[in-house]
Amino acid sequence: NFEAFGFSEICPQSYRRFSTHGENCLSLNIWAPDDEKTHPVLIYIHGGSFMSGTGSSPLFNGSKLAKDQNLAVVTFNYRLGALGFLDFSFLGGGTVANPGFHDVIMLLQWVRDNIESYGGDPDLITVMGESAGGTVASILPCVHEAANLLAGVVISSGIPTGLITKEKGRENALKYLDFMGVDSLEALRKIPAEVIGNRSQEFGQYIESGITSYLPVVDGNLIPDFPMRMVRRGEMADLPLFIGATGEEASFLRYDHYKESWGVESIIDAGGAKEEPDFLEQMFKCYEGVYGDNTDLHPYSDIFIRLPLFLYAREAAAHQHVWLYRLDWYSRLQGTVGIKAFHSSDLFFFFGNLVPSANINTTILKNIPFDPGKPADALMTKIIYGSGINEAEDLSRQMRDDLAMFVRTQKLPWVKAQPQNLMAKFYDMPLSTEEVMPPEILAFWKNTEYYKDCLDPLR
Questions:
Q1: Across 162-176, average pLDDT
Q2: For residue 430, cis peptide bond before it (omega within 30 degrees of 0)
Q3: Strands 39-45 and 72-76
Q4: What are phi and psi of 167, to 5 degrees?
Q5: Which of 16, 212, 293, 423 lies deepest, with the highest CB count within 10 Å?
Q6: Quick count: other Cβ atoms within 10 Å of Cβ 202?
Q7: In this predicted structure, what is the pLDDT of residue 16?
Q8: Residue 382 — very low, low, confident or very high, per pLDDT cuts 50/70/90?
């Protein structure tokens, strides 16, 4: 038996909600059934726009998933912000592009080499990532060092187009030197990591890029090309994929704070400048024709996440097995306040942590309490799902069963996606199988510059 008693400090970042920040943050957390058997492994990569988050978030506590589904569940930290996703390699001195992505590769190798000691099967490892973590997961089948370690990949609300060229990476890094008032690698290294973390979001405001301020760089080495280009050419590893999103990804953008932090206006303006003058008018006309009075923020859900994600799924489906899902269920309160099935809400269901409780702690790895973090964590989920907890628990059980089935077998019991027919399992009441995006919506986007950029960022 192995025992642990707490989480490590987390990677330096602006987001101050979680525990102590520091450079001693490259750690992992393991939950596994307390028996003598060998179990399939699920590695989860957290999101946070490459500038925030941690694998020790209460939402990702793996106790329930490991115990109920007989899995070994691994979460971890990787370097974030300027420490993880700015490319200073042009400065020499041992610097490399994508330090945070290198952390992910090292984590996969560590799990392969050591997980058997914790009850995991090193030959049956599946990676799951959400949001920025989903973007990382979409890259892994394109990276030889990673793909050979994996049996399958789960991508939740990832953005496979969320990478930049080497040239853009250097441009951002130079802007960061100006932002910090330094002109050399030596001076940069003298800046305390805590200061770098604290100013992560401030840099995004400085360059007016919001959530796209820190992105993986196509360095031609570790990351050889943009994933969408590689998958279209059939150069991605033949790994089974389980890909999905939520029904109202962008619903939180109705709150001005998130609009500002995401840099929505500047991103839309930059994208719209490539389109025809009446682009926005035609876009809303198309969406109103499909959704009527419920159009709401669907266009932004598609722009930011669903369109590039499901185009990636479509291209992959020409070469390998792909299953799709969409979470559409939401509680009465979610409907009342207008957030519905928001970005990342599927994680509550996949991990089974709908109503965090200190009583969840563990017969799994002994003496690891389930720390709900701040009281707000438990309160938030009780408020969100309390009005429909029975339905939510039923749906969570179904989603955990499906996730575990994929981890164990790399198969799922509904129709696979095809390039011409993107059928998905809709997690709702009742369950259904439908087109993951309305055909009329896909037809509209097919005539836009954005669609073409998604398919080939270097065109």
A1: 97
A2: yes
A3: parallel
A4: -65, -45
A5: 212
A6: 11
A7: 61
A8: low
